[in-house]
Amino acid sequence: MGSGSTPPVLKLFITDTLGNPFVEEDWLPQVMQPVAKSRRDANAIKKGQPITVVIGNPPYKEKAKGRGGWIEQGSAGFQPPMARWEAPPSWGVGAHGKHLKNLYVYFWRWATWKVFGSGQHAATGLPDTDEEGIICYITVAGFLNGPGFQKMRADLRESCSDIWVIDCSPEGHQPEVATRIFQGVQQPVCIVIAARQRGNDDKRPARLRYRALPEGRREQKFEALAALSLDDAGWVEGADGWRDSFLPEATGAWAEFHELKSIFVYNGSGVQPGRTWPIAPDKTTLEQRWQRLIREPNDVEKERLFHPHLRAGLPGDRHIRKQLAAGLQNQAQSLTPIINEKNDIVPPIRYSFRTFDRQWIVPDARLISQPNPGMWAAHSSSQIYLTALERASPSSGPALSIAGNIPDYDHYKGSFGGRVYPLWRDAAATQSNIRPTVLAALSETYGIEVVPEDVLASIAALLAHPAYTARFQRDLVQPGLRLPLTADATLFAEAAALGREVIWLHAYGERFADPAAGRPKTPPRLPPEQAPRIPAGGAIPMAPAPLPEEMAYDPATRRLTIGDGFVDNVMPEIFAYEVSGKPVLRQWFSYRRRDRTRPVIGDRRPPSPLDAIQPESWLPEYTTDLMNMLHVLGRLVLLEDRQAALLQKVLDGMLIPVERLGGSADDGDDSSPA
Fold it and tell me: How far apart, in whole angstroms, are the C-alpha atoms of residue 98 and residue 121?
């Protein structure tokens, strides 16, 4: 700037970015007219002046339906800009589309509308000629690979010439605070630069490049950010399909494995109760909570006890006046609105709450926000469920888990949701959820009839152990498990036999029982010399002693201590057993200790007072469940070397190519596996 020249005037405005740019704010009172003028000036820029660069850190808020302003709702003569990112029904996005209802997504849509245009100039209605620009946002990373964001990704690939993605959270979900770019954000965070050059060919998807910052403290990440450039050697090519994730393409042997979801006809979410009080480690607690609820005479307090979800300040999906047309199939039916209910509780049933942690749930559709009725309709004593992450990748332990009871939405690790892959699509166990083309191709390859149970068992043998997760950690930067399928009939039979034992263990002896093969229909047990035991005087004190508060482990003595009681001969590997960073034993104990309070995430209201109803003392069934889990974990630890060796043999041999099985997966709508 030369001497004496006038500095440029900065145009700073108070405005609602997502607001309608075609509305004049004359209605504001006189005292607010400076704000009104600021908004009018901002709207003039938003609707008429080309903008070529948008940089920001948009707010993150899930379940933000109704908070997207004009971007979400549109106005007279203008279709909501968000409509452009809604996937057509033929894409099968289903319930995943709800994830678009997030504040940061609304800001992304505003930026793309303003910088890249909408095909028609907002002010004149003439073809949009603003062809170049850049958006650089740092946001949570769910849109990089979530199935609900397919249309968003396709539109960005069409609108842009180049996209750069920087993964700022290689540690995954809920990393250590010291590693977070934003210390208060538990979700993975990314920086995305989306650029459009003049004359962009919208028939060719944008070139996508990806890199991850180094794992470690946030200061190291800031140093790495300061040093990188857009043309250095640290970038890897990303997937180039219109709807593909914004992550690296699968390469090498990993690309030749079968996507887990491609083996199944259907996969869906687990049960999402929406409130915590209908779940407990014991039935008596649920009965006490129920009685407290229905005996409450004050309707306002009864609603507070029930703990409805709120939508714009009003009760949402479930509330005490809710009238349902039907309950859950194969369960006792009670359809009276809770406000009028006087009857006993619907009998609680076993529930696969977390991996290896079986609790109890009240199977009452009035209490469960998203029960996924089809899952209940297809449940039986023959049903088996695989559960795995979807939007994230496992970091340690088995890559998937198995359940015999209906699983929770967060069953796999207690956070971040996931997908459920049932074995059967009906309660009679006559309709396989393994795709018919898969069964036919495997039968032809091996020269024998392949049954659905053996396919599921082979998956469990190869994926449900730590060696798989550790071996493919780099490949799993792109979420989504893949299965190496052997072309050797003998290896497949070995995998099926080993996997049946894995499933029997995960299901506590209630699935794939075969006494002749050493799998009785009873809780599994370790050999006596390796079995945990409670010695004389070591029992965990029960009433009148209060519930214990602490769990500890001494590897030198192999003693697990709970309060004033203890269990001896517990292998160190059992205490260290974890599922994607979640220590199984500590997580199990956290639901049975005296203080069971947890950080409030999402719904910021305090939990229902019903949650505070719990046993005063340790229950005998807690000890039974603990011992059963120690035996199961111990036997799984002893199987890990066999599973790792089998995986290596499969990888060393000939594999069935992806194209051999054909077909594609149905992500479903979470309503029915049938």
Answer: 29
| pLDDT tens per residue, range 301-357 | 999 999 987 554 444 567 888 888 888 998 988 889 999 999 999 999 999 999 999
Upstream peptide bond of 544 is cis (omega within 30 degrees of 0): yes
Please choose, from the candidates 318, 408, 320, 407, the residue with its C-alpha nearest in 3D space to the C-alpha of residue 365: 318
pTM more than 0.85 = no
DSSP assigned state of 636? H
What are the E-state strand segments in 40-188? 53-56, 133-140, 162-167
SS (HEC) of 574-600: HHHCEECCEEHHHHHHHCCCCCCCCCC
Distance CA 541, CA 242 (A): 60
Alpha carbons 257 and 253: distance in angstroms, whole number: 7
Residue 39: count of CB within 10 angstroms of its CB: 22
- The three-class DSSP label of residue 492 is helix
- Strand, coil or helix: 443: helix
- For 116-170, write each residue's pLDDT tens digit: 875 444 444 444 555 688 999 999 988 998 888 999 999 999 999 999 999 998 8
- Looking at the chain, the domain(s) classified CATH 3.40.50 span 51-249
Number of H helices, E strands in the chain: 16, 21
Q: Structurally, what CATH architecture does the domain formed by 51-249 represent?
A: 3-Layer(aba) Sandwich (3.40)
CA-to-CA distance for 171 and 395, rounded, in angstroms?
8
Q: What is the DSSP letter of 516?
A: G
Contact criterion met (CB below 8 Å) for 242 and 154: yes
